[in-house]
Amino acid sequence: MISFMSGRRRLLPCVGLGLLAVLCWVWVSFASLSGEQLHLEVLDVADRGAFQPQSALSDMEFGSVASYRGPGNSDRRSNKELPIILWWSGGLFPHFPGDTERIDCATSSCLVTSNRKVQLYKRTASIIFYGTDFRAYEAPLPRLRHQTWALFHEESPMNNYILSHGPGIRLFNYTATFRRESDYPLTLQWLPSLEYLLEPVAVSLEEKNRLRREGLAPVLYMQSHCDVPSDRDRYVQELMKYIQVDSYGKCLNNRPLPEHLEDTATATGEEPGFMNFVARYKFHLALENGVCPDYMTEKLWRPLHQGCVPVYRGSPVVADWMPNDHSVIIIDNFPSPKALADFLKHLDENDDEYVKYLEFKDPRRITNARLLEGLETREWGVNDMSKPNYLNGFECYVCEQENARLAAERAYRKAQKRNQAPQPKMASNSHMGCPLPSPGYGDVKDLPPDDGWLQIWPQDYWQSLDQAEGLESLIRHNESDPSLLWKHIQNIAVSRARGKH
């Protein structure tokens, strides 16, 4: 492994930590195509386990949508004439069983493929990358002028901090991320439907109070992915000094899971036995593994579904998406863990105050127009086979954008005086832009130098910026060898040290 030193930070190649859709209706045609049918011309250019972080994709059902041409699609071109979209992350290719398909979207059609041999073809108009798998040192170079790049990234910001820096996100022309500002927002990907929120309370308040009298804690914590950028365990550990918390996962464990729940895909699914077990608690500590606007996962939505009150830290704008202004307790609204603990104790002892947090179970009490509109207008579904999934939806978004771009370029070439040259589209920090990780409790300057979190996540964040700048430099210099990334990072560091960068 190569490393360099700069005046700002130590530079190391990072490896991601993660796992492994706007147009009215989107339909996908599943007519498998053989490689010979492409007829293309090459350009002449040299532990996932229980309680582990997951992707909403892991719960998504994939099925063939009946072959259908969008109501505005009059694209009668043959397969040999269509623009090609390449899924660079082949493991995410949303078609089975082949590696190449024709898609007929709302107004136009494309070929989509996971076959990387088409990377340098003239007709390959766009490449789609899965954010978790995107590596600066493996990028397809040289970046061709006629091709756009598209980013699909619905997972935690911790999986790839390259995308949280300007030089990293600006590499992409189209984006589908959890941020509402992205081109194809996936913000509510973990919320199946409004009905999911309106499910009756799973365990009555009377039963919860009885269990409390028998010694059950008011607060549940269940995590087995401990060393994460949000540093949630540090906060929970301090909170435990002031209120009883039952912790069943590997992190801060103080209670064993019942034997029948130990082998669990339980926290990564909604197995009834597990759901009934956790529904007994009044409050669920719902702390995301990464802090970023609009990054909200099942940790938030499942307690709301069950009729428990989430005690939340993650998206700083989470209130924008809540059923009403009294359905979640936001950790950052309290000056200290003790102040939060005192408030939770107050609710635990006052039933009338506690049940106010569950009033959203009455649909008349759901007052958030943004949430209702978001669920109503999204074209993709979560385990809803009447709608496309967001992978197919995003590739159709890219297909439509690319057909429009190519048509505008043709019109400009034919009549430059009558038509404007199409302007390149570029993503901005608002499409991802997650902040530097900070300690879950306390000030970073007060942490000892050998603190494990301090040695990992701030460094990973800044090293990712180095890699983003290095890749940007590779592309600017029209390099064709991604292994030269480290040389470019070193050159940038030297220039910075000399005051030239």
From TrEMBL:
Identify the residues that the record assigns to the Fucosyltransferase N-terminal domain, covering every copy. Answer: 82-185
Protein name as catalogued: GDP-fucose protein O-fucosyltransferase
Q: Where's it found, cell-wise? A: Endoplasmic reticulum membrane
The protein's job, in short, is: Protein O-fucosyltransferase that specifically catalyzes O-fucosylation of serine or threonine residues in EMI domains of target proteins. Attaches fucose through an O-glycosidic linkage. O-fucosylation of EMI domain-containing proteins may be required for facilitating protein folding and secretion.
Keywords from the named record? Disulfide bond, Endoplasmic reticulum, Glycoprotein, Glycosyltransferase, Membrane, Signal-anchor, Transferase, Transmembrane, Transmembrane helix
Instruction: List where Polar residues composition bias occurs.
Output: 418-431
* Residues forming coiled coils: none
Q: Which GO terms describe its cellular component?
A: endoplasmic reticulum membrane; Golgi membrane
Which InterPro entries does its entry note?
Alpha-1_3-FUT_met (IPR017176), Glyco_tran_10_C (IPR055270), Glyco_tran_10_N (IPR031481), Glyco_trans_10 (IPR001503), GT10-like_C_sf (IPR038577)
- Tell me where the signal peptide lies: none
Name the domain of life. Eukaryota
GO terms for MF: alpha-(1->3)-fucosyltransferase activity; peptide-O-fucosyltransferase activity
Question: Ranges for the Fucosyltransferase C-terminal domain?
Answer: 219-370
Q: Where are the transmembrane segments?
A: none
| Spans annotated as Disordered | 416-442
Cross-referenced Pfam families: Glyco_tran_10_N, Glyco_transf_10
Question: Reaction catalysed?
Answer: L-threonyl-[protein] + GDP-beta-L-fucose = 3-O-(alpha-L-fucosyl)-L-threonyl-[protein] + GDP + H(+); L-seryl-[protein] + GDP-beta-L-fucose = 3-O-(alpha-L-fucosyl)-L-seryl-[protein] + GDP + H(+)
The reply to whether Endoplasmic reticulum figures as a keyword in the UniProt entry is yes
Record's keyword annotation contains Transmembrane? yes
Broad EC category: transferase
Q: What is its main location?
A: endoplasmic reticulum
Organism (species): Cyprinodon variegatus
Membrane topology qualifier: Single-pass type II membrane protein
Which EC number(s) does the record attach to this protein? Answer: 2.4.1.-
